[in-house]
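Worked example

This section walks through a single chain of length 138. The input is the sequence exactly as stored; nothing has been trimmed or padded.
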Amino acid sequence: MSSPEILVALLIGLAAGMLSGLVGVGGGIIMVPALVFFMNYTQHQAQGTSLAVLSLPVVILATITYFYKCQADGTPINFKIVGLLCCGFFIGALFGGKLAIVIDKELMKKIFAVIIFYSGFKMLGWDIALFKWIKNFI
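Given that input, the structure is written out below as tokens.
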């Protein structure tokens, strides 16, 4: 790898890690698009790389931080729910990965973009504002 590639990869990882620790996102929202745009990865290659990075050694540090914060606030992390989510996530990731490899890379980009757009739209509360605006015309 060249020095610029190493620097870009480290900066992408840093940004994704900071967002992951801050708000629980980073791999899909930062790392995947950054790998596609700045390192010319295919959509499949970027998603696979992001998943590989998000393995246990990386997320454990942020998890420990949140564990202690939630304990101190009296709102502990429910590890029974974590276990159930892990089971579903494990099975879902297996089938999602198998499905992803048969989908065309351009369609994958569009699916990814729609999910990110919809998530942002909902989180900003714009869906409620849109429905209110539409009701004014009906």
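What to look for: The mean pLDDT is 85.
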